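FAQ: What does a ligand-bound record look like?

Like this one, built around glutamine:
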Amino acid sequence: MTKYIFITGGVVSSLGKGMASAAIGSLLQARGYKVRMRKMDPYLNLDPGTMSPYQHGEVFVTEDGAETDLDLGHYERFIDNPCHKTDSISGGRIYYNVLTKERQGEYLGATVQAIPHVTDEIKNFIKSDLTDEDFVLYEIGGTVGDIEGTLFLEAIRQYANEIGKENCLFLHLTLLPYIPTAGELKTKPTQHSVKQLQETGIQPNILLCRSQMMLSESERSKIALFCNISPEDVIIALDADSIYKIPLQYHEEGLDERILHYFKMDTAPKPDLSRWENVISVINNWEHHVNIAVVGKYTSLLEAYKSLNEAICHAGIALKTKVHITWLEADSLEHKTAEQIDDTFKDIHGILVPGGFGNRGIEGKIIAEAYARKHNIPFFGICLGMQTAVIEACRHVLGIANANSTEFTKNCTPVVALMTEWEKDGQKQIRTENTDVGGTMRLGAYPCCLQPGTLASKLYNNAGMIYERHRHRYEVNMEIASKLEEKGFIISGKSPDGILPEIIECKNHPFYIAVQFHPEFKSRAFNAHPIFKGFIQAALQLSSLL
Ligand code: GLN
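The answer part, i.e. the structure of the complex:
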């Protein structure tokens, strides 16, 4: 019978509940179990697709085209199984489903209420689309006590009652703040948070306590006593200097064993953690260093570039190279003199321009892209980074001074424009200027045909066709792309119908590649993405010449 683990958080937000959940999932998986990971976010947006990266961090895109919370990125990176559309839900989607059913008369004249109708809908999500998993982990967004989260807690309480407490485990993540003047860790906030959870009828079975330092046995016993659990179930999650150390730390603290103990499952044999041990041994012994500039739009909140940051790090791990990233806000380049730009990129061995939306910073990205192209600095453009690279090339190579994207201005030669038609699984997708913005982009995995003999084909090991995840509304004009081909560029990747340019390269350049998709979502610490790896390899080559 499938075992359910519900992960809640308390005391403060931003404790890394998603990371903790992913690490727990990976530990169970390392013991040979089939694990599924899911996220319930109580907020009212239907999905995070329309939220600003400053509000919510990165929007993670699944293979099947859902725009989801960035925690699903942690899950995929730690479990290495693709998450599905059905692995994340928001409060908004739950209410939407309930109200849709009400309009369709499905409640047969009943007064529609929070309990049972909304809680039933949450339980439907919990039960839906499972395929014989040994463990399903459900992370509940927000912190205990949030008004929006109340019905989610009520639903998981009911669910545990329905399927039997022996099949459900409640794990609560808290913080033990250290007060330097008192010289001690404080347990009171954890006690309060557990009390609040108990008020909802949920008794946590395991407490995972974030802390800067180890806890004394007497403090552990005190938490156990006040929180109504055994001291062995108070697990300390020490601050880690690398997220990839977390599964190993949790294992040392006995977390996976306590979970199995709760479910009365065998605790032998030990998990195979060699995957993480190998990563850590590289991280502890870097052999090389390179400097990469990321010219972005949301660099003051690095959560906005979560998968990108990880993918760069993964490529470094594959090459035993510590990658030092300089995060540059694109618009900060716009008022710099040529000397100041030289100075900005003086010690930089690779320039990456990531995805983004809207006009701000576009000219700065174009400045960085021109610099990389003209100075033979390895360049990697992603999504918006490909679109702006094309605008740069159109302006400076084809001489179309007012080349631009219709996303930024209507008053231009539109070398990038709104995609109004494309194919998805054999069906035509149609969009107009007036289409709703939520969930209507070209989303998820699409095939891309690679031209043999190109850099892309080499990086992907001569694969003829690849699948990568997309999230964009605008597209490079193929006619313009063909004109660029006459001037030293190559369209090395196209949609199978040949209509959409997916990858652009520059021939006489040590490493210049721009892609319409988001390769960062598929990179893993133990299996770096080939383009990121190629990019860091090229940067390493440049650094050895300087
Ligand atoms: N804003 C661009 C578009 O919608 C690029 C999107 C992105 O970088 N993800 O096409």
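Follow-up question: can I read anything off the structure? Yes, for example: Residues 359 and 408 are 5 Å apart (CA to CA).
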